Amino acid sequence: MDVALAKAWLDAAADAIAAQADQLTTLDAAIGDSDHGVNMNRGFGAVRTALAGAAPDGVGAVFTLAGSTLVSKVGGAAGPLYGSALRALGKSLPEGPEVDAAAFGAGLRAGLEALRKLGGAAPGDKTIVDAYLPAVDAYDAALREHAGDGDGGLGAAARAAAQAAAEGMRATVPLQARKGRASYLGERSIGHQDPGATSTWLIFQALADTAAP
Ligand code: ADP
Ligand code: MG
Ligand code: MG
């Protein structure tokens, strides 16, 4: 993963979120306050602008800038959660214009840990964690199989992560929310797909589309 690929991933995520913003908001209308698409689109649009106007010298700096932008530009739960994850990813990476697939995977997990520390959600609470955790587990498992690939396994690991995020997202439907606004609904949150798990899938799918086109 180099600086160009890191930026291309975040641009692809911004594109996917813009295209699916109405769908994210519709999901949030069912169990939240109808703003997840608006929040995410505003945040990732600001990330796109920030990255276009900056020349980060390392991969870590790309993610640190993106994370700080999300934290400062997005109200609501998801902005600070994703922002903290991206900042932790950026800070965990070794300095330099390129990092290997293992370091990037460790960074994704550092991001998950920061997000969990901030939000306190456990697996099964019907949140971002339910897509993000299986994604990083699948990334690591695929990387062990594909470390000998030409790209060091990044493409295969990203594809596996996106598939696991999709499964985790779909598995939120029967869950009762225990964190965030949807938890106020109690049992009435059952039967709806979690908006944040859905945006997490979009972000991992964007990674797969960028790293393994
Ligand atoms: P808000 O709920 O403040 O309006 P958003 O609508 O942008 O914020 O984001 C809602 C999403 O945030 C939820 O669908 C859920 O996935 C995620 N979320 C909320 N609280 C938490 C938490 N404590 N940990 C992880 N994810 C959370
Ligand atoms: Mg909301
Ligand atoms: Mg809100």
Automatic annotation (TrEMBL):
Kindly report, in one word, the top-level EC class recorded for this enzyme: transferase
Gene3D superfamilies, alphabetized: 1.25.40.340
PROSITE patterns for the chain: DHAL (PS51480)
Q: What Gene Ontology molecular function terms does this protein carry?
A: phosphoenolpyruvate-glycerone phosphotransferase activity
Q: Which Pfam families match?
A: Dak2 (PF02734)
Which SMART domains is this protein grouped with?
Dak2
InterPro entries reported in the protein's UniProt record = DhaK_L_YcgS, DhaL_dom, DhaL_dom_sf, Dihydroxyacetone_Kinase
Q: What is its EC number?
A: 2.7.1.121
- DhaL domain sequence ranges: 4-209
Q: Which UniProt keywords apply?
A: Kinase, Transferase
Q: Which NCBIfam families would you find in this protein's record?
A: dha_L_ycgS
Q: What is this protein called?
A: Dihydroxyacetone kinase subunit DhaL
Species for this entry: Catellatospora aurea
Which gene does this sequence derive from? dhaL
